[in-house]
Structures are given as C-alpha cells and as structure tokens.
Amino acid sequence: MKNYLPQRTITRLILIGVISTVLILPVGAFARTSSILVRLPGGNTGQLKTHSGLVELQSLIEAFDLRSSMDVLGERLDLVGSGGSCRLLLESPLVLSRGLFTVMSGPLVDLGGRLAMPADFLTKALPALTGRSSLLDAQVLTVGEAGSGNFKGQSPEDLPRFASFIRRDQYVPEEILKEPKGLSVVVLDPGHGGRSPGARGNTGTIEKDLVLSVAENLKTRLEEGLGIKVVLTRTADYYVGLKERTAIANNNRADLFLSIHANATFRRDIDGYETYYLSLKSTDSRARSYAEEENKALGVKGGKDDQALLEAILWDMAQTAYIQESSELASMVQKRLVGELRGRDRGVRQAPLAVLMGARMPAALAEIGYISNPEQEVRLNRKSHQDQIAAALYMAIEDYHRALLRGEIQRGPR
Ligand SMILES: [Zn+2]
C-alpha cells in the first residue's frame, strides 16, 4: 500500500477542495437563517424563522395569529394575541405587559426592515400573548393548552436596577466617553403651543407665548455665545405632542434638553423659580400635583390608566440612564435663575414629568416665574425681563458646558 498519493491526485484533490469551498461558503452564510419548530396541542405544528439566533417577528405573528402595530416614530411595537398584549421598544430588551416588565437577553432589533428579537422572548413574553405555556428546548418550542401560561414580570419599582440594560449606542469605546467634550447640540422646548395655552395671567399673559419668546432669545444667545447648534421643538404657536418633543431631541442627537415653562397657582402671592428633573416618584405632594397638572395640560392621561402607566415606564427608561447628569443640570439652571433674577428660590424638584421621559440625554424643565402673581406677570411681560431670563438660562447652560469640558460631570451613555 502506497503511503503517498500521485501528484495528479493531489492536484485534483486541491481543485475539489477549492471548488467545494467556493460552493459551501454561501451555503454556510445562508445557514445563519434557521428555524424553530412550534409544537401546538393536538399535534399541530408551525415554524418560526430565525436569523443569527434572533426570531423574526413576522413569522411569530403568522404562527400565533398576532396583531401588531408600530407607533408613528417607529420606536414602539405593540403585539396583541388571544391571551393578551405586550409592548416592546426598538433597541431595548424590555417587554411590558399588564403593568409588569421583563428583560430579554438582547434588544428588539431591525434587521434591514425586518424586526427580530432574542429567542428567550418565546419563554419570557409569549405566554402574555397566548395565555399558554412555552417551553423552548433546542430548536423546538412546545406550547401548552389555553390557560396554561401567564406572564411572570417584575414590578416597575425594580426598573432602576435594570437601567444599564437600556443603554443604547454601547459600541462607543470607553475612551471616547471619557474624553471631555462640551455641548454641540442643544434642544430647547418652549412648553405648550396651539390648543395647549398653558398658564394664564390676570392681565392675559399666556404661558405658550411667553416661553416661546424666551426660548427664541436663548437660542440666539447660545448660537452666538457658544457657537453650538440649537433646535427648538416648536418655532411658532402650534401644538407639538410630548413624544415628538423628545423625539426631536433624540433625532438631533442633542447633548442637552431644556423645557421652558411658566407657573400659575390660585394663590396670587406665590412667586419665584423652580427647576425639575425626572423621577418616577415626586419629591413631595406639591411636585406630584404639579406633574399631574403639567402632564394633563400636555394631553397625558393621568392617574391609574394602565396604558399611560406602561407608557410612562417605557419612556422613563430612556431618561433613567441620565438622572445624575439631569440633576446637575437642574441645579445649575436653578442657581442661575435665582442668582441672576433675584427671585424666590423654590428649589430643584423631582417629578414624573411626561415631557422629559423619552429624552436620551440630560434633561430638565425650568419654571421661569409665576404668571398668576400680578407683580411677576407685569415683569414677565417686559422685554427687558425676558432678556434677563434668557441670559440666566444661557449662563446655566454655559456652566454645564464648561463643567463638561473640565470633566467634572460624569457622562451617561451617548
Ligand atoms: Zn407649562
């Protein structure tokens, strides 16, 4: 028996090797698309398409006869099945159902026009839609009888523990995050507008007009003083929804979001300034009733409405990662308002303000005075006072910008 091969055979083998590699390669790449067999009670079967280990949404919809809808911004996916509903957020691993949440091993992603999610969605969240138990073993999903399964989620109070999961843009190298960088884009949000007038003063001052004028003034100052890009969420008297406001900031990749409002109360002697940043809980009962009023004025259903609660939780998650920076921003804004305008210091407060919830950057809301206080209303109407307010807010944003450049502010994910 010869222990070597003739040269011609070797050449042939190499050729076969090369040809088969060329033939197998595309087959190998194609093999990333695979499927999961679904076994239903009564011997029925179905199939779920997977790609790189992710389950394609469309095949899930077909296999379980689900209804789906995506919000106008293309960020939120609602799924409804015969056993219930759930909500997912693009690029987030969170799934919400019945006021509870669960966290998948990875986010809902867009694979070139097709949405897909990690396979553990099938065991963690599918029972919320089908009301049936789900058992995944290798590439086989066994689904139980109707009523055999339910959604085992966690309560919203546990959300802060999961804040790091929602950090987007995780591919940004650590060194870049640590490199001191000032502000490049700021989004200013003049409160209300159009059918939402906001607070009204005794002599007819309307919050929506006042805050727009201050925001326009501040925009010019920031562009000229810091040379940065400034975008307003509205540039005239029209209504802008809450999600659109933060979406404008998110889409512009803003480094800072400042919402500008003016206050009113039935007690005419109350005046002064206050600045808010977001939390699920209010610092006190006044902050809570304030949040309810502002949210209501902006078209958010308050109270225990389940859908609103889910919404609030989801949108809050975006801001959770920036709470520390937002608190520092709010302190700087409050310090300048009180210091430059010499008004009563009503403090920095935390409240579940819907307008801040979706912001994926440090965000605060400034109350630039009480329209309901007759003396303050007169001042608020003066162009010179509006100038002073814009100057104070400019100084606060400049303080924040300088603190960023000095590396004094711990940056959240970007
Ligand atoms: Zn307002």
Which ligands accompany this protein?
zinc ion
CATH top level assignment of the largest domain: Alpha Beta
Q: How would you describe the oligomerization state of the chains in this entry?
A: single chain
Main sheet: which strands, in order across? 9-10-3-2-1-12-11
Distance between the termini: 68 Å
Total strand segments:
18
Feature tags:
alpha/beta, Copper Amine Oxidase, Chain A, domain 1, Aminopeptidase, 7-stranded mixed β-sheet, 6-stranded mixed β-sheet, 18 strands, 38% helix, disordered N terminus, binds zinc ion
What can be said about this structure in brief?
The chain folds into 2 domains: 32-146, 2-Layer Sandwich (Copper Amine Oxidase, Chain A, domain 1); 177-405, Aminopeptidase. It is 38% helix and 23% strand.
Please provide a written account of the structure.
The protein is α/β, with parallel strands linked by helices and 414 residues long. The chain has helices spanning 7-30, 57-64, 121-124, 126-130, 174-178, 207-226, 242-251, 285-297, 306-320, 323-341, 354-357, 374-381, 383-405, and strands at 33-39, 45-51, 54-56, 67-70, 76-81, 84-89, 94-97, 100-103, 109-111, 114-118, 134-137, 140-143, 185-190, 229-232, 256-263, 273-278, 345-351, 363-370. It is 38% helix and 23% strand. Strand 13, helix 6 and strand 14 form a beta-alpha-beta unit. The chain is elongated and about 80 Å long. The protein binds zinc ion. Residues 191-192, 198, 207, 261, 294 line the site of zinc ion.
